[in-house]
Every structure is written in structure tokens, then in C-alpha cells.
Design brief:
The chain has 3 domains: 2-93, no CATH class; 121-197, Pdz3 Domain (Roll), CATH 2.30.42.10; 210-405, Thrombin, subunit H. It has a 6-stranded antiparallel β-barrel with strand order 6-15-16-21-20-17. Strands 23-24-25-28-27-26 form a 6-stranded antiparallel barrel. Strand 23 (313-320) and strand 24 form a beta hairpin. The longest helix has 24 residues, at 2-25. Helix content is 12%, strand content 44%. The protein is mostly beta strands. The chain has helices at 2-25, 155-164, 354-360, 398-405, and strands at residues 30-34, 47-50, 71-79, 83-93, 97-100, 104-119, 122-123, 129-130, 143-147, 150-151, 170-176, 179-185, 188-189, 195-196, 199-215, 220-223, 239-245, 248-253, 262-266, 272-280, 283-288, 302-303, 313-320, 326-336, 347-351, 371-374, 377-386, 389-397.
Length: 409
């Protein structure tokens, strides 16, 4: 009986140690917050994060209690106030004003290198089947960036470089899960005198989405509230550059239970709005070059809400469902996940406006990025729809999008 008790006690102690080790390892080395914002991190009993002995950030640069530029400080992570675990670098951003948009735009993305979307057997000139990429470590979703130390610019460039090898062994550099790796691979000669690697690749993507906000101070924009992923690999596309153009809404497909609706648009002959520089899980970001093509109402500038200011209850979303007219529709914020810093499902929302439900059935593809306004402040953007309940979905906090855009280096 005593041995059984000791064994159980040891297991409990090991479990507690594991829980604390996991919690500590999940604390980031750097966080970005707004002036006056509470640090929202999932924690565990006894593990505390403090700045100047306060759980709330109060980094003030002037007597007027305002900061004009980003301020760097340090937060201390301690166990039971006595044991210092680590320091966190904290970038404190000044309270920000932006202009919520809600209009549709076209997106053209070009990858850094080429994206691997599939693998295939190659029939050689001897009619035998080969898999030249087998055992190289390359997987779907990886990005090929160099052949023999020469940068890969596009799919056509990759094909040309492989053919120029004349079947000689080549050194291929690629990115796998944010880690740069290298391998050797011997192209296979086919019956039509071409050399192949047995890889399906892609170097660009295009689509339409909703512009969330415009920052007049930096002439920057944020859109979608989620990243653009490859249709085959379902992974974020690692972009080299991108274009941001005007679009025309062609058709609205109403959502039904089990069948998501969508906005169908065309980016042909679209007017240039700006450039895209970042594709992240919290949205896409870039610079606006032609403000007139974005139909911005400068009188609508408003403050970005802190999470503590967001309440469950009524709010509105802005979106354009045709003719470039942005309209306001009523929603309900049903749940708020204040400590969520890890994905773009920060709030659960429900469309309650009968006009929007009549037009779309609720939330449909293409509405991602529609800004959410509550009490005169920008609080977030639509990101997802529940397939079996098209009037309900998720939204990302506005502060998370702003932090992605204004990441302090």
C-alpha cells in the first residue's frame, strides 16, 4: 500500500513538473502590445508576468500619458514572485487610429521561389518509372529557392535550370517549415528530351477578398484577417511580392447549412491600389499607392479598441456586396476569447441583420476581413464561417492585425 502511494505521488509530481515546464516553454520571448493593454497570455498557477510590479502595461513617455512612437521595455516572468524564470522583450505601441474599409479588392501573390504542391513518378526515356525526389527530404508545402546556388525566380525558371543540367546531379536548396535545407537530386530524362524532378510546383496565386482597414499615417493596409493558403497543401504561401487591385463583384452565392456561400469577383482590368508584402495567419498587409482606387472615406477614422473594451452584444460589420457600395450590417458578438494570441478565432459572432441574411445567408467566402465596429471603435474582422451554421462564425481581434502590420523590428 505504501509503495503504491509513493508511486502515485511520484507520478503526480512528474505531471506537475511537466505542466509547469510546458507552460514556461510556451511563454514567448517577445510580445507586442498597445499602451494601456493588459498582457493576455495563457498561464498557470504561480507563474506571473510583471512590468514594474504591475500586470498592466503603463509605459508613458510624456506627462500627457501618451506615447507617440513604439517603446521597448522588459517583462519579468517569475514563479511565485520569487524565482525569476525569464525576461520577455516587450514592444509597446501607441494607441492607433485607422480607417475601417470593408470594400472588395483583388489579390495577386508571387512566391519566394516555387511552392511544391505535389509529387509524381517520371517515365524515363528507357520507359522505366523513376522518383528522383524520393528520399531527398522534400515534402508538399516546401518552397524551392535555389539550384546550384542560383535563385529560382519562377516555375519557368525552374524548368529551364533543370533542363540546362543535362541530367547532371544538382544541388537544390529549399525551405521546410521555416528551416532552409539542401539536398542533391538527379533529374530524369524523358522520351521528349526534357529533364524532370518529379515535382508539381506553383509560383503565384490570385483571388478576391475584403480590405479591413487603412492606416493614413503609414499608408498601409490590412485585409482578410487570415492568411492565403495554397489550395493543395493548405499551408501559408511564402510570398516574395504581391499586387493589390480593384475588383468587380460578379455574383453572390448564398450560403446554406453545409454549403458555404461565396462572393464571385473579377480582377481583370483591375486598377492598381498598392503592393502586398506580408502574408500571415492574421491577414495580408502592404502599402497603398493609389488611395483614390480604394474609395476611402477619411472622415471615418477611428481608434483601435483594446480587448478589455470589447463587450458581448451588438456590433456592426462593413462589407461590399456589389457596385463598390460598402454597407453596415448588424451582428452579435457572442463570445470573446481575450487570452487567445495564437489563432484568428478571437471572437464568436452571429449575423442578426435580416438584410444581410437575405442576401448571403450570413457569412460567406469573400467577406473575410470585413471590419467590425462597436461603440465607435474598430474591434476586429470577420475570418471564418461555421459551415453548418452560416449565420455564425469567428473574428480576429483588431489589435492582432495592427500588431502584425506594425511589427517592431
Amino acid at each position: 500500500m505504501k509503495k503504491k502511494f509513493i508511486k502515485t505521488l511520484i507520478i503526480i509530481v512528474l505531471f506537475i513538473i511537466y505542466a509547469y515546464t510546458l507552460a514556461i516553454s510556451n511563454v514567448p520571448n517577445n510580445i507586442v502590445i498597445f499602451e494601456g493593454e493588459t498582457i493576455n497570455l495563457n498561464s498557470i498557477f504561480g507563474l506571473k508576468i510583471n512590468i514594474n510590479n504591475s500586470d498592466t502595461i503603463q509605459v508613458l513617455a510624456t506627462e500627457s500619458n501618451k506615447i507617440d512612437t513604439a517603446v521597448k521595455t522588459t517583462a519579468k516572468v517569475s514563479l511565485f514572485d520569487n524565482i525569476l524564470i525569464k525576461n520577455i522583450d516587450v514592444d509597446v505601441l501607441p494607441k492607433t487610429k485607422v480607417i475601417p474599409i470593408g470594400s472588395m479588392a483583388g489579390l495577386k501573390l508571387y512566391t519566394n521561389g516555387v511552392l511544391v504542391v505535389g509529387m509524381a513518378e517520371i517515365q524515363g526515356e528507357d520507359s522505366k518509372k523513376y522518383k528522383p525526389c524520393e528520399n531527398t527530404g522534400i515534402k508538399e508545402g516546401d518552397t524551392l529557392i535555389e539550384i546550384n546556388s542560383n535563385k529560382i525566380e519562377s516555375t519557368g525558371d525552374l524548368i529551364q535550370k533543370v533542363n540546362n543540367s543535362n541530367g547532371d546531379n544538382i544541388n537544390l536548396k529549399y525551405i521546410h517549415r521555416n528551416e532552409t535545407k539542401e539536398c542533391s537530386i538527379t533529374p530524369v530524362k524523358t522520351s521528349n528530351n526534357q529533364y524532370k524532378l518529379g515535382l508539381w510546383v506553383r509560383d503565384s496565386a490570385a483571388g478576391v477578398g475584403t480590405v479591413t482597414f487603412y492606416d493614413p499615417k503609414t499608408k498601409s493596409f490590412g485585409a482578410l484577417g487570415h492568411g492565403i493558403t495554397d489550395i493543395d497543401t493548405e499551408k501559408l504561401i511564402n510570398i516574395e511580392s504581391g499586387e493589390f487591385v480593384s475588383t468587380r463583384v460578379l455574383n453572390i452565392v448564398k450560403g446554406e447549412n453545409g454549403i458555404p456561400g461565396k462572393i464571385q469577383g473579377s480582377i481583370e482590368d483591375g486598377k492598381n491600389i498598392g503592393t502586398i508584402s506580408k502574408n500571415t495567419k492574421f491577414g495580408i498587409y502592404g502599402q497603398v499607392n493609389n488611395v483614390s482606387n480604394l474609395n476611402i472615406d477619411t472622415s471615418k477614422e477611428m481608434e483601435v479598441a483594446l480587448r478589455e473594451e470589447i463587450k458581448t452584444g451588438k456590433a456592426t460589420i462593413l462589407c461590399s456586396l456589389g457596385n463598390n457600395n460598402v454597407e453596415s450590417y448588424e451582428i452579435e458578438i457572442e463570445k470573446i476569447y481575450k487570452n487567445n494570441n495564437y489563432d484568428n478565432k478571437s471572437m464568436q459572432i452571429k449575423v442578426i441583420d435580416p438584410k444581410l441574411i437575405e442576401k448571403t445567408g450570413g457569412i460567406i467566402q469573400g467577406m473575410s476581413g470585413s471590419p467590425i465596429i462597436q461603440n465607435g471603435k474598430f474591434v476586429g474582422a470577420v475570418t471564418h464561417v461555421l459551415v453548418n451554421s452560416p449565420d455564425t462564425g469567428y473574428a480576429v481581434f483588431a489589435d492582432m492585425m495592427i500588431k502584425q502590420m506594425r511589427e517592431v523590428k
